[in-house]
Amino acid sequence: MLPVEHNDPVNAKILAVSEDKIEGFVREPFEEIAGRSGVGVEVVMARIAAMLRAKTIRRVRQTLLATNLANGALMAWKVPEDRVDAAFEWMFQRDPFSGHVVLRSTDTVSAGSDYKLWTTVKVPHGFSLSGHCELLAQKVGAERFRLMPAKGIFTLGVGHVRRKTIEPGSKAEAPAKMIPVQVVDLSELEWKVLLVLKREFAPEEIRPTPWAPRAKEVGLALDEFYRVAEQLNARKIIGRFSTFLEHVKPSAGGVRVTRFNALFHWAIPPGREIEAGGEVGRHHILTHCYWREAGPEFKNVNIMAVAHGTDKHLLLDHKAAIDRHLHSSGIPVSYTNVFWGGRSEIKPSEISPLVYRDWLCEMELLNRSIA
User: Fold this and answer.
1) How far is it, in rounded angstroms, from Cα 294 to Cα 148?
2) CA angle, 157 as apex, 151 and 159 as ends, to 5°?
3) DSSP 8-state symbol, 284
4) Rounded distance, CA 323 to CA 10, Å?
5) Angle between helices 29-37 and 9-18 (to 10 degrees)
6) Regarding beta strands 98-105 and 335-345, do their DSSP bridges make them parallel or antiparallel, or are they unpaired?
7) Segment 149-162, tens digit of pLDDT
8) How far is Cα 354 from Cα 347, in angstroms, rounded to an integer?
9) Residue 295 backbone class (left: φ over 0; alpha: ψ -120 to 50; beta: rest)
């Protein structure tokens, strides 16, 4: 029986590459992982399939830069204490357009600490993001919500295995470059290819030439499928080919990848967000770094970043190192805070306009039946 824990030496070598190092669209992703990890391709495929079956890996998929394909935002929800758990379940189970669903808390009562439920939401272009959130607020009984779309992206990856050994203050030689959020329109053919590209792989699909069955599914020759996928890649729509670890819950063997999920907040003077985001985003510990406007409820925080780890004090050391770097770079911070993740569920957000129309119809029918 193959080892399935993330800390097995061979699995760790594979995961250090497969989590977030395969950028863009790759025709033979498992061969690419093998080449970069130094592990034979047959072993790579067997180990990834075994970890997926054991749920050490929760999904294998081609990610998209969905911020360019749908209107998206980080959401903070103020929900009555006795309804928070039910709201969490509704967002996770009933809204395919909510991705990360997380309960967060702060170490002390502070700005926004009464916003316990946090989600990411994406709504296909042509539909109202604020209208969607108003509908969600009605469904879960939220008193208020704060909608925080990304104005720029500085860091977007995962890489929990390789981040385990990163020292506080470790950073890239140059500031992170901001990826602007911009609308991209797709043809019907591009949507067909995109929707099968992003679908999760089953264990039996971990095989050579994994895109061939999906090309056949949409009625394209494999070379034509590659051509469309590579055009999408050139338009900055494709993210990474990734194996996502179950980093919140323990594995079947009781091993955790991470224990703590920290959302860092900084309030930077208006006009210096790109500079500050570049300095924050260059730190290797971060899996995400964005420019978002959190508003007065959160003391006008505008730079946010996420880090994961097994030691809370070590994560705070990383945060302190970033704070020192901002100070030494001459970037003033008027306010900072940490929101710690607790219970969480993560699923890919749906982005199909057709799926959204069907969902709205379902909600309308549900409203009528209740009335």
Assistant:
1) 6
2) 160
3) T
4) 36
5) 120
6) antiparallel
7) 999 999 876 654 55
8) 19
9) left
